[in-house]
Structures are given as C-alpha cells and as structure tokens.
Amino acid sequence: MAKPVPKRMRGLDRAAVTRSAWSLYRETQRPGAPGLGARVLATPRLLRDALGGRYPGVGPGKLAALAVLSAVYLLSPVDALPDFIPFVGWTDDTAVLVWFLAGLTRESGRYLEWAQGRTESD
C-alpha cells in the first residue's frame, strides 16, 4: 500500500512553482536588472564559466550536483507523487524542473552583473 502524501505536501508543488516564477519575474523587472531574455542568452556562458572555475558565484561541483540531482529525480520512477496518476503525478517533476531552471536563471542575472563589473574594471 502506498504511503499517503502528508498534508503539508499537498498543493506545495503548485504553490512553490507559482512563488518561484513570480519572484523571478519581479527580479527581472527591477530597475537596472538584466531582463529575462538577457538571462536566458547568458546561461550558456554562465555554465561554461562556472564549470571552468572562472565564475566565483557558483562552484562547478555545486552546479553539477544540482543538475545531476534534478535529472535523477526527474528520471527516477520513485517520486513524491507517482507519475502514473495523470497530471497530478507530474506536478512534483514540474516543480523540480521549474525550481532548477528558475535558480539557473537567477544565477545568470548575477553572472551578468559580475561580467559587467569585470568588463568595467578592465
């Protein structure tokens, strides 16, 4: 028999995804902050510089660990909510994916600010 989902977990995924998306939107609307498009375009450079050890904002080990843990959870047949339940089963996977992508997008904003400061000091 499957374990029931704890009450504090019900609806958590949808609320977490909404909060994460909303806070990312607010962050991109701050005056002087890089917009969403610039952050998305900067993500490959962020990954290259972080994995190469040139960007001090996030270490290559932490970035790789978060990516691997997210991928393992998404690909794993063991979930908080079983995937065989249509739509409901995919909410936890969606929440993990949005959490990882929102974190990467936030970090790319910090990366752009770091890269701009580096360019100005050169």
Describe the model.
The chain is an all-alpha fold and 122 residues long. Helices cover 66% and strands 0% of the residues. It contains four helices and no strands. The chain is flat, with a radius of gyration of 17 Å. The termini are far apart.
Largest sheet: none
- Output the helix-strand order: HHHH
Strand content: under 5%
Measured between the Cα atoms of the first and last residue, the distance is 63 Å
Structural class: mainly alpha
The number of helical elements comes to: 4
Helicity level, as a percent range?
Answer: 55-70%
* Gross geometry: flat
Radius of gyration: 17 Å
Short description:
The protein has 122 residues and is mainly α. The protein is built from four helices and no strands.
Write the layout of secondary structure elements.
Layout: H1 12-29, H2 36-51, H3 60-75, H4 91-121
What attributes characterize this protein structure?
66% helix; single chain; 4 helices; 122 residues
